[in-house]
Design goal:
The protein is α/β, with parallel strands linked by helices. The chain has 14 helices and 11 strands. Strands 7-6-8-5-9-11 form a 6-stranded mixed sheet, with helices on both faces. A 5-stranded mixed sheet has the order 2-1-3-10-4, sandwiched between helices.
Length: 338
């Protein structure tokens, strides 16, 4: 047998042997990640947590999953976020306001009337500005996995229907413990009262505050209709809910686990946002069925409202950071064809 034939035979055997070796399987350890959230379990955020957990279980062969904790069981948004930074809780789905003081690039979402549509929201929350914000999080001990949604915020109160901007005058409104929201409601003539979300129902029930503002699904899930009579569809701000993991926990995962966690958080956004938007319409009907009176301001009054709160932008630039504001507006201008 010639040397060339021998070489060809050996090469063929080696090639066959190499093809017979299966690709290295992904490696997953056993992980159950605790996820904190301030809303109730029937809020749309649970659709995201459930979808992400199912994705993790399916992708890891049952080794990885989430365990959701609702109603602020592990602390309010700010407390839970700090616990995630320290690594004592693995994950949190929180409001942007809870981390705005940690990372100013998130505070830009708190400005009034930033977004005109769901289309704009989706493009920003999954596009270059998302990447811009996510790149800043590891410096704060956090890894941003996705941005889900709480939704557009609307006002409720127990005193009177709000048909004009002047109807805000003198009402005590619970707002998040956030300077931008405080400034916004002061400029409307209301008396903003900063308060943790877990205290809101009791404050409304006892009359400590007259009203509050939140997205419709959260108003319904929290049963605020039991202590509030009037709902005004202002859509004055949009609230995203960042999905954050402790960097210490993230660093303890191998590359396969990290990739699966990231992919599942991103894919679960579709389920969470779809649920949020479907129940928003349903929530308005249900709130009316529960006895709430629903109103909208006329276009002229909405223009007045926007004009009144416009100075919040300039007043908030030190908090938000002009670079962050400009980065977001660059993306919005592209979407709007400017």
């Amino acid at each position: 047998m010639s040397k060339s034939i021998i070489k060809a035979s050996v090469f063929a055997l080696l090639t066959t042997a190499m093809l017979a070796v299966p690709a290295q399987a992904a490696e997953y350890g056993s992980h159950t990640f605790k996820v904190s959230n301030g809303a109730s379990e029937d809020h749309p955020v649970s659709a995201g947590i459930n979808a992400m957990s199912a994705c993790l279980e399916d992708g890891s062969g049952g080794k990885m999953k989430l365990r959701g904790f609702y109603n602020g069981q592990l602390g309010d948004d700010a407390e839970a976020t700090q616990s995630v930074r320290s690594g004592s809780i693995e994950m949190v789905v929180t409001g942007a306001a809870a981390i705005g003081g940690i990372e100013p690039a998130m505070s830009v979402f708190e400005l009034p009337f930033m977004f005109a549509s769901d289309k704009e929201v989706d493009a920003i929350m999954t596009g270059p500005y998302y990447d811009y914000v996510a790149a800043k999080m590891p410096a704060h001990g956090l890894v941003m996995l996705s941005i889900w949604e709480n939704g557009f915020r609307n006002a409720t109160n127990a005193k009177r229907p709000i048909n004009a901007v002047s109807d805000f005058e003198g009402l005590n409104f619970r707002v998040m413990q956030n300077p931008i929201f405080l400034d916004t409601f002061r400029r409307l003539g209301a008396n903003p009262v900063p308060m943790a979300f877990g205290e809101v129902f009791t404050a409304l029930e006892t009359g400590a505050v007259d009203g509050q503002e939140n997205p419709l699904p959260l108003i319904q899930a929290s049963k605020f209709y039991e202590v509030q009579k009037y709902l005004t569809l202002t859509r004055h701000a949009y609230s995203p809910t960042p999905v954050l993991m402790s960097k210490a926990v993230w660093d303890g995962l191998n590359a396969d686990e990290q990739a699966l966690v990231q992919d599942c958080a991103a894919s679960a956004r579709d389920a969470q946002v779809a649920k949020s938007r479907s129940v928003t319409t349903e929530a308005q009907v249900e709130l009316q069925n529960e006895g709430m009176e629903v109103s909208e301001l006329s276009p002229e009054e909405m223009d007045k409202l926007r004009a009144l709160v416009a100075p919040v932008y300039d007043a908030s630039m030190e908090t938000v950071g002009k670079d962050n504001f400009d980065a977001l507006m660059t993306e919005l201008d592209k979407l709007r064809g400017k």
